[in-house]
Structures are given as structure tokens and as C-alpha cells.
Amino acid sequence: MTIAQITGAIEELAPVAYQESYDNSGLSVGNPQNEATGALLCLDVTERVVQKAVEANINLIISHHPAIFGGLKRLTGSTATERVVQLAVAHNIALYAAHTNLDSVRGGVSEKMCDRLALKNRSILQPANRLVKIAVYAPSAHAEAVRQAMFAAGAGCIGQYGSCSFSAQGTGTFLAGALATPFAGKRGELHREPEEKVEVIAHESQVSGAVAAMRAVHPYEEVAYDLYPLLNEHACVGLGMVGELENPLKSNDFLQLVKQVFSAPSIRYVASGNRDIHKVAVCGGSGSILTNRAIACGADAFVSADFKYHQLQEADGRITVVDVGHYESEIFAIEIFYEVITKKFPTFAPYLVKYAINQIGYL
Ligand SMILES: [Zn+2]
Prior knowledge:
Udp-n-acetylmuramoylalanyl-d-glutamate--2,6- Diaminopimelate Ligase, Chain: A, domain 1; 3 domains; six-stranded mixed beta sheet; five-stranded mixed beta sheet; globular; binds zinc ion
């Protein structure tokens, strides 16, 4: 099978369009139409990882962190990133990443953190609000085809429900000009047509596809449709998650649980007094910017990584913050890749590499 087929399976769960603006997820090196000789799954692409792929004759590396993140202006081998890309190109190895898009979906990195802590009643911590309402006016007899075309293009999803739409009957009017070829009525005569207004919601990344699919089945020469940007939050897309422990835990017991389930050699934390921990927010990787959101959601604790000293100080007294380590909070990404690929392609056996940037030492 091709590299595109394998990465396509990952994108069914985590569309690349869901990534944050600063990110560089997707394929950054390689030809997607090449046959995949295997897939190496990792958190970070280092020279050591690429070398491992070379030795194992694997031509696709799938990582959580993009190999090229901050841009490249030359390939002289003077930085680790340049050497990784040179090595990959030299051995015809494709580099693919699913980063903030994998952080932003149900079933992604933060959901895996919820699984580890056995959190109930989960929801997205910081829902994205990149939603658009598409309203299309179609002759009544063609409204169903228009609706189904937009559903097939991914529009009409609200939370756990698909194929959501609203319709209203009405009357459209148009006066076809001299060069027009009207679907109904005559040139130069005002026509009244029984129409249906079909409304669906879509993520902004789906809009152009949904509009193209709609236009392909719509019978009018000039299709009337409206696109409205919405302020609504997307219930299923966004960073971090929040949920509840089955039973509240004493602060110390919670900290021990976190250390254990994330296999962390050590954790940093600032505990919020002796308050019991029931509601817990999580975010894989550097989630410190979501601390205030976690507080606003009423979470008793926030588990993430890369907190600065003053960020911990600010949180003091308002929420228990646990810095579990960047690697420890995100290593589940490779489990997700593995599950997605083997579910879709049961005979395909990805190769897992579980090491950090280099061996991180703890004294
Ligand atoms: Zn990360």
C-alpha cells in the first residue's frame, strides 16, 4: 500500500486542517504515492530514529512532533534538523507528522491521558470555534441530493451526531438574462420556483469541499448559497480535555496516581491546599496556556508539561498543577498511530520506537 493510504488513515482521525496555525503537520518529506515498505512510529525524528528506519528498510517515519517545525533555509548538515532531512532524503524515507491536529481531536493525545486517569464525563477543554454555517437554496426536488452531497463531504457533524441539517420550504425568484440557460423558466421572464433552504454546519477546513460537492449536484447555473462564520464552539475539536475521577482523591494520592500512570521518573507540581481532586483537566505537551481555562472549567487539577516557574506560582491556590513531563504526556501518540494503522490495515505491522530526543537523564 502507498504512503498516502497509511497517512490517510491517520487523517481520518485527525485531519491535518485541524492543526494550529504555528504547526507543520502532514507530509514534509517524500512522495505520498510511493509504496510503503513499513512505518516507523515515534515521538521525535532524530538522526538515530532515521538510522533505525534505514537499518529496518522502512521508508515512512510517522512522528508526533514534525521533523521540520521552524522552517529550513539550507541543507548543509549544520543543524540536527538539517541532518535528519538530508538522511531521510538520501534514503528515500518519507517524514510525516500528526501534531496539534492529533492533540485536537477526540481519540487523540489528551483523550489517551484521560484513559490513563480513567476520567469520566469528558469534554474538550478549549473547544475550537472555526465553524461555518452553509445555507443553500435548491429546487425542492433537488434538496435531498444537495444535503447528501454536503454530508458526504463531511459537513453536518454536531458533537457525536452526523448528518445534521435544517430545511425550510420557500419560494425563490429569478429573472434569467439574455445569455443565461435557466434550469426552469424563460429568459426575460420573472420565474418563481418552489425551493428548499438547506442549512448545515461545517468546520472551516471542510467548507470548500462541501461547497464543491453541493455545486456538483445542484441543478442551477448560478447557485445561491451563504457562508456564515459562527461564534459557536466545536464540541469535538480543540486542545486539552477535562473529565472527572470516579471518586475524589486526596491531593497526595492523586499526585501518586499521576506519577504512576504516566510512568514519570519525577513530577513537578504545585498543590492547591488540601482540596480533594475530582475534576481534572489534561493537555499533552506544553499546555500551560490552558491553565486559566482549566481553572474556569472548575477543574481541581491540571496535568500537562513544560510549566515555567512563574506559571506555577500564578496557579498557586487556584488549582493543582502537575508537570508530568513533555515526553511522558505525549508518548501515547505512537499508541494512537499504531491502533489506527493496524485497525485499518490488519496485516501491516508498524515498528515502534520509544525514545525521547536523546536519553533524558534524571538524578
Ligand atoms: Zn509535544
